[in-house]
C-alpha cells in the first residue's frame, strides 16, 4: 500500500512527535481529532503508537493520506522484564504483512480472557455486578481492561487499596511478551524497535546504564526514546550519550493521550538517524 510518508523529506527543525495514543488503546483522542490537532499546530510528522494495535495501521495510513499528513506506521508493544513493565516502540513495518500483529492479537485475546476470569471471581464473591458490564469491557481494547475493571469494582468497594487487592486476588495480570520476542518480530517485519520511556519508574523498569547493557544482551533493541516529558535533564543526557556511544537510534515522544497533555514539538534533527533508517530524509 502507499504510505503517507512515501518520499517525505523534512527540515532539521521540523516539528515531530513519535509517541501518541488514541481511543484505539488507552487515549482520549480519536484518530481524527489527533490528526486535526497535529495539522492545526503545524507538526510535520507524527506516530500514533497505540498499545498492541498493529491491526489499525492500515486504517490510520488511509486517514493520514486523506488528510495529507505524514504519519509513521508504528505501535507500542507491551513487554515484561525483571517483573516490571517495559514498552517497546516499533516503527516502519508493513501494515499488511508483518510478524507483530500475531503478538498483538495474542495480547488482546489473553487480556480479555483475564478480564473474564476476574469478573467471574467477583461474581463468585457475591459482588452485585451486571453481566452486561462484562460484554462492554470485552468490546474495548486490551489497554483499557484494568481501568474498566477498577471502575466496576469501585461501585462495590470504596477503599482504593482494597480494590487493588481484590483484583489481584481475582487473578488480574498484565498480559505481555518478553522483549526479545517483540524485537525479533519487529526485525522480521523490517521494523526498528525502540525502548520506550526508559526513565519511567511507575511500575516500569527505570533503566540506568547497567540495566540497558543487560537488556541489550537479551533483546537487540535498535534505540532508545531518550527524549520524554518526565525524564530529567540528566536522564535525557545520559540516554542520548549512551545511544551515541553504542550506535543506537534516538527517539522522542510526548506520550500524549489527550489535550490536557498535548503533543510536543520535538526537532526532527533529534531523531535524524531513526527517521532516515525508515525512509524519511532530513535536509
Give the amount of beta strand, in percent. Answer: 15-25%
Total number of domains: 2
Order of helices and strands: EEHEHEEEHHHHHEHEHEEHE
Oligomer: single chain
Name the poorly predicted regions: none
Structural class computed from helices and strand pairing: alpha/beta
What CATH architecture of the largest domain do you see? Alpha-Beta Barrel
Q: What can be said about the biggest beta sheet?
A: 5 strands, mixed
Description of the molecule:
This protein is of the alpha/beta class. It has two domains: 9-100 and 177-282, Alpha-Beta Barrel (TIM Barrel); 104-169, no CATH class. The protein has helices at residues 31-40, 57-66, 100-124, 131-138, 145-154, 160-169, 179-188, 209-218, 233-245, 272-277; strands at residues 9-10, 15-20, 45-48, 71-72, 74-81, 84-91, 192-195, 223-227, 249-252, 266-267, 281-282. It has a five-stranded mixed beta sheet. Strand 3 (45-48), helix 2 (57-66) and strand 4 (71-72) form a beta-alpha-beta unit. The longest helix is centred in the middle third of the chain and has 25 residues, at 100-124.
Question: Which short descriptors sum up this protein?
Answer:
5-stranded mixed beta sheet; 2 domains; 4-stranded mixed beta sheet; 283 residues; TIM Barrel; alpha/beta; globular
Write the SSE topology:
Elements: E1 9-10, E2 15-20, H1 31-40, E3 45-48, H2 57-66, E4 71-72, E5 74-81, E6 84-91, H3 100-124, H4 131-138, H5 145-154, H6 160-169, H7 179-188, E7 192-195, H8 209-218, E8 223-227, H9 233-245, E9 249-252, E10 266-267, H10 272-277, E11 281-282
Helix pairs in contact: 3-5, 5-6
